[in-house]
Write a structure and sequence with these properties.
This protein is mostly helical and about 130 residues long. It has 2 domains: about 60 residues, Arc Repressor Mutant, subunit A (Orthogonal Bundle), CATH 1.10.10.10; about 55 residues. Helices cover about 60% and strands about 10% of the residues. The protein is built from 6 helices and 3 strands. It has a 3-stranded antiparallel beta sheet.
């Protein structure tokens, strides 16, 4: 499976609407933005068409004159790509990022315990039967 395309913050807001709301029309995507600062319909339309060209969304059906779009890429694969890109900024090292998250109060003891469980599970998987 190919890596998901690079997405801008605005692209991610559109994708979030599609991941959360299921297949939507451009008008429905536009309405998912907060009323204050909501982008124009034509702006959202242009961005959705660009996402379609990138292979991130597809037209799933047409109702009257409205095309309904659905995501072609998953939230999970997109998040993984973003995290990998972010780690690239740190030379692939997670420690500076982890330290920042802890100091900023964004990483709880529960988060760390879940990470430890995941590490133990992966270690067992690598050891094999």
């Amino acid at each position: 499976m190919a890596a998901p395309p690079k997405l801008s913050r605005f692209d991610l807001q559109i994708m979030e609407a599609l991941w959360s709301g299921g297949p939507l029309s451009i008008r429905e995507i536009q309405q998912s933005f907060p009323a204050r600062g909501r982008p124009a319909y034509t702006t959202v339309q242009t961005m959705v068409y660009r996402l379609e060209a990138k292979g991130a969304v597809e037209r799933v059906k047409k109702i009257s004159n409205a095309h309904i779009f659905g995501p072609l890429i998953s939230r999970d694969s997109t998040q993984r790509r973003l995290v990998d890109d972010l780690l690239g900024v740190f030379g692939g090292r997670a420690q500076p990022l982890m330290t920042h998250l802890i100091e900023a109060g964004k990483l709880s003891l529960g988060d760390i315990q879940e990470a430890e469980k995941t590490l133990r599970r992966l270690a067992k998987k690598q050891e094999g039967p």
